[in-house]
């Protein structure tokens, strides 16, 4: 018998006043329980009980030993219960690293409703514009562009990779709308900053071929939100995700251009995914939060 079970049996015997009753509570026969207690006494080199045919009473050494181990086993039981609950019930701190522009629009607005449903989960949310992040170093969930390579992670699609070329109605009224991808080059373009590389927009033509344009303009930024605000202020053309500017397009604040030609800026074609480590027993807090996001957001967006 393992030592932990023997210690539990020892405390049960004190609590129930008999070896047979203590053994039954742990699924042990009276013979097995008695043998286990004797082995524990031999290992400790002390006598834990004074035994008679009708009565079992702890020795002084047994009472002192029980006083030491009882709180330790209670703490261990509490820790094991908490660990089980983290897989069975959403609880604990959920550490998330999320792409800033997406999180501000499609994650943060749903935190209150998630907490209302799962009040035992606390959220630790870090926002970033970095790409290529994966769950590691205490991070439970990453909300990012695209899926990481390899089989160590699982991704859940939150938003499509569709991009929309657009400009404000006032800009178009003053400068006109490009009728072809080549005409885009005659307009100021608001672009993502990717190290020292020149910004490139890629268009899929009606023929199926792709056309790459080295665009330029008055603003480069690593923040899609900054580019969106600049476009709303009539600074030029912008190519941004539908999940970011869909509301602006629907409200008429931005006007789509060359809608029949799929386009994306350089390496920013990927969809948005919630990514966690692949594991046989995923903590309930992660399962619950991903399910909440999927239910809150239209997967077609």
Describe the structure.
- With 301 residues, this protein is of the alpha/beta class.
- It is 41% helix and 24% strand.
- It folds into three domains: 3-88, Arc Repressor Mutant, subunit A, CATH 1.10.10.10; 92-160 and 271-296, Periplasmic binding protein-like II (D-Maltodextrin-Binding Protein, domain 2), CATH 3.40.190.10; 163-265, D-Maltodextrin-Binding Protein, domain 2, CATH 3.40.190.290.
- The chain has helices at 3-16, 19-25, 30-44, 60-88, 100-106, 111-117, 169-175, 181-184, 224-232, 242-251, 284-296, and strands at residues 49-51, 56-58, 92-99, 121-128, 141-145, 153-159, 163-167, 189-192, 200-204, 210-214, 219-221, 237-241, 255-256, 263-265, 272-277.
- The strands form four sheets. It has a five-stranded mixed β-sheet. Strands 11-8-12-7-13 form a five-stranded mixed β-sheet. It has a three-stranded antiparallel β-sheet with strand order 10-9-14.
- A hairpin with a 5-residue loop joins strand 9 and strand 10.
- Helix 1 (3-16) crosses helix 4 and helix 2 (19-25) crosses helix 3.
- The longest helix has 29 residues, at 60-88.
- The chain is rod-shaped.
- The mean pLDDT is 88.
Short summary:
It holds the Pfam family LysR_substrate. The protein is of the alpha/beta class and 301 residues long. It has helices spanning 3-16, 19-25, 30-44, 60-88, 100-106, 111-117, 169-175, 181-184, 224-232, 242-251, 284-296; strands at residues 49-51, 56-58, 92-99, 121-128, 141-145, 153-159, 163-167, 189-192, 200-204, 210-214, 219-221, 237-241, 255-256, 263-265, 272-277.
């Amino acid at each position: 018998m393992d030592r932990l079970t023997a210690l539990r049996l020892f405390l049960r015997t004190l609590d129930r006043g008999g070896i047979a009753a203590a053994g039954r509570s742990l699924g042990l026969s009276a013979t097995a329980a008695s043998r286990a207690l004797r082995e524990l006494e031999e290992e400790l080199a002390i006598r834990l009980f004074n035994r008679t045919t009708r009565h079992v009473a702890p020795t002084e050494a047994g009472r002192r030993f029980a006083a030491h181990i009882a709180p330790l086993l209670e703490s261990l039981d509490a820790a094991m219960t908490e660990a089980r609950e983290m897989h069975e019930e959403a609880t604990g701190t959920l550490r998330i690293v999320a792409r800033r522009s997406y999180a501000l629009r499609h994650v943060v607005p749903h935190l209150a409703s998630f907490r209302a449903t799962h009040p035992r989960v606390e959220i630790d949310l870090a926002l970033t514009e970095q790409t290529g992040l994966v769950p590691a170093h205490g991070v439970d969930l990453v909300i990012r562009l695209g899926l990481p390579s390899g089989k160590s992670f699982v991704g859940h699609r939150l938003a499509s990779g569709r991009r929309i070329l657009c400009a404000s109605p006032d800009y178009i009224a003053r400068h006109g709308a490009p009728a072809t991808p080549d005409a885009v080059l005659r307009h100021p373009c608001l672009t993502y900053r990717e190290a020292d590389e020149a910004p490139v927009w890629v268009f899929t033509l009606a023929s199926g071929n792709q056309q790459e344009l080295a665009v330029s303009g008055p603003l480069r930024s690593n923040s899609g939100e900054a580019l969106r605000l600049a476009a709303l202020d009539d600074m030029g053309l912008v190519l941004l995700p539908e999940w970011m500017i869909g509301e602006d397009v629907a409200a008429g604040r931005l006007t789509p251009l060359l809608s029949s030609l799929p386009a994306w800026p350089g390496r920013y074609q990927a969809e948005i995914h919630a990514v966690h480590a692949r594991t046989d027993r995923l903590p309930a807090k992660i399962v619950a939060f991903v399910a909440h996001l999927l239910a809150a957001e239209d997967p077609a967006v």
